[in-house]
Amino acid sequence: MSAHTGLAARKKAAREAAFLRRELAHRSAGAQAEHLIRWLSERPGETVAGYMPMRSEIDPLPAMAAAAKTGRVGVPVIEAAGRPLRFREWTPGCALEKGHFGADVPVAGVWVVPRIVIVPLVAFDRHGHRLGYGGGFYDRTLELLRKAGPVAAVGFAFAAQEAEEIPIEETDQPLDLIITESGIVVPS
Question: Could you say which residues bind substrate here (predicted)?
Fold first, then answer.
């Protein structure tokens, strides 16, 4: 077994375990976005990228709506496999359509360049590593945004999605902090 095959197998096993933990947390969630709303409220006017929740992902929409009152909010648009994401401006109640991979995206709107990116994830660890869905979209996007200037990558997840250690590779972009329904985790 090559090192790459071993890493892929470890990521697959970690992803499966994290999906199960997230599903269980989703069933018992209350005020999920409270800490995220508070954190974003301390950064009024910033351009924020959120996401449209799918499956059992924690829901950032209340925090996105709050952020849209003082600044621009965008949601990711996948233009093609292997490419970075672009972010189309989103406002509460705007017209949506299904994009690639089934996520809702605004039908129209300007493109925005975020300085805060709320990142969905399958699992995270205390070192700021995240396990995504395996497409590399956020890693490519964060790398590109960070070359242009400072960007805060904020993982948003249920506390139950925390793992002891996430297997990483060179292309994985770290999170600057993780916000859960239980509080804020600052990576060590």
Answer: 52, 57
The tens digit of pLDDT for each residue in 42-83 reads: 999 999 999 999 988 999 999 999 999 999 999 999 999 899
User: How many separate domains does the chain show?
Assistant: 1
Which residue numbers belong to the known binding site? 52, 57, 130-138
Q: Which range of residues forms the domain containing residue 8?
A: 3-185
Write the secondary structure of the chain as one string of H (helix), E (strand) and C (coil): CCHHHHHHHHHHHHHHHHHHHHHHHHHCCCCCCHHHHHHHHCCCCCCEECCCCCCCCCCCHHHHHHHHCCCCEEEEECCCCCCCCEEEECCCCCCEEECHHHCEEECCCCEECCCEEEECCCEECCCCCEECCCCCHHHHHHHHHHHHCCCEEEEECCHHHECCCCCCCCCCCCCCEEEECCEEECCC
Domain of residue 22, CATH code? 3.40.50.10420
pLDDT bracket for residue 124 (50, 70, 90): very high
In the annotated binding site for substrate, the residues are 52, 57
| Nearest to 82, CA basis, from 121, 136, 131 | 136
- Which pLDDT does position 28 carry in this prediction? 45
